[in-house]
Amino acid sequence: MTAFWAERAWVEGDVAHGVRITASADGVITQIDTDTGCCDGDERLDGLVLPGAVNAHSHAFHRLLRGRTHADGGSFWTWRELMYRESARLDPVSYERIATAVYAEMVAAGWSAVAEFHYVHHAPDARPYDPPHAMELALARAARAAGIRLTLLDTCYLSSGFGSPLEPAQRRFGDADAAAWLARLSSLRSRLAEEHPEVVVGAAVHSVRAVPVDALERIGAELDPAIPLHVHLSEQPGENEACVAATGLTPTALLARSGLLSSRLSAVHATHLDDDDIAALGAAGATIVMCPTTEADLGDGVGPARRLADAGARIALGTDQHAVVDPLLEARALEHGERLASGRRGRFSPAELVAALTRGGAEAVGRRVGALAVGRPCDLLVVDEASARTAGSDPGQLVLSATAQDVTRVIIGGRERAIRGVHTDLGPIGDLWRKAVLA
Ligand SMILES: [Zn+2]
């Protein structure tokens, strides 16, 4: 048993005072007391304690593009060519090194769980690795080394567009058809259950442009309804136009017709939606994974997050391409996008932003994470209330003033994993990138 005590902690959607959090040896919260003093032997946490942040959308290897794609202008589609160039170079060894570094970076920033939207399945010539699942096992080992809770979303990726086969750069992402992907997913679930039971295996369809209509329908009929399902949705107007031209439906309407729109669906980006799309996603109780720093970086646009929340959708956050790996900046960028698009302030309250960072991602990662409550994992991040950025802030509004620089301690499953930006097992994150990845 371990007990933590904090002057302030985020309990039931607000700042509570004098909070004692007791955790079992296996890292689950067994008791929470408020308005209480620090006892002998308690681990004292100085600052505001938040539940560990939940990163609902990651492509680990995209971190390689950070700070290297800004020279020649371009668009989402030209950025994608640079991303394909990096994906072509990956092998299980380099994928594990990169993922270890980026997951460690996430942990040090305050993220304690991640949904990895993984599609680099096969060798560059598209042949399956032998033994199988080499890339997926590399991600599982990386997450174990970093101490982050991994939800591995194995992605179905079958076409380059409506009626178009995979391009050469995409061939290593693909499977022969939906049945082959479902079979590989089933095999992966068995393998990880044996070797990495800590990993939650989920599924993704890359996008409506990458999975043909008949395959979407088969997946809707056959995929285990108990596992998380993610999809990139309407990130670019071009996807919507191609979908309407090919099917007569918007991407959201196509997912609904295919039996994929439900409360277990996490729709990533959801940037370019019409009124019917918003109503349908809200009525389904889907999770919407906004990735505001990525959407700004790629020039995607500002999605209708407030309207989706008002319609009934759950808002989560993801770092996607990792141009920024900072939970507090991600939450702030969600609100800033809303302000810039609407001309109004306070579109999401500070409490709603904390919710998006934490319990908003629970369904997306298929875990009962994101709240300081009995029975939940003891995942904590501590925000310094007295830094250059935060001194004088109302503790309830720190989500709008702090950055990851102010995350002083990160505890996952009751175990300390990072202190002031340094990973307790893997060391300073910059060193990790320089020595292990970029050398
Ligand atoms: Zn993505």
Would you mind describing this structure in some detail?
A nine-stranded mixed sheet has the order 3-2-1-4-13-14-15-16-17. An eight-stranded parallel sheet has the order 5-6-7-8-9-10-11-12. It has helices at residues 76-89, 92-109, 134-146, 178-195, 213-222, 237-247, 251-257, 275-284, 292-298, 305-311, 327-342, 350-357, 362-365, 429-437; strands at residues 2-11, 14-23, 29-33, 43-51, 53-58, 111-118, 149-156, 200-205, 229-233, 265-269, 287-290, 314-317, 380-383, 407-412, 415-419, 422-423, 427-428. It folds into two domains: 2-50 and 372-437, Urease, subunit C, domain 1 (Roll), CATH 2.30.40.10; 53-365, Metal-dependent hydrolases (TIM Barrel). Helix 2 packs parallel to helix 3 (134-146), helix 2 (92-109) runs antiparallel to helix 14 and helix 8 (275-284) crosses helix 10 (305-311). By secondary structure, the chain is an alpha/beta fold. The protein has 14 helices and 17 strands. The protein is 35% helix and 23% strand. The mean pLDDT is 97. The structure holds zinc ion. The site of zinc ion (ZN) has 6 residues, from loops.
Write down the Rg: 21 Å
Structural domain tally: 2
The helicity comes to: 25-40%
**Secondary structure: number of strands:** 17
Span between termini? 42 Å
Strand content: 15-25%
CATH topology of the largest domain: TIM Barrel
CATH architecture of the largest domain: Alpha-Beta Barrel
Structural class: alpha/beta
**Associated small molecules:** zinc ion
Tell me the CATH superfamily of the largest domain. Answer: Metal-dependent hydrolases
> Main β-sheet: number of strands, strand sense, barrel status?
9 strands, mixed
Strand order of the largest sheet: 3-2-1-4-13-14-15-16-17
The tally of helices reads 14
- Given as residue ranges, the uncertain stretches (5+ residues, pLDDT < 50) are none
**What is the CATH class of the largest domain?**
Alpha Beta
Mean pLDDT: 97
What coarse outline follows from CA principal-axis ratios?
Answer: globular
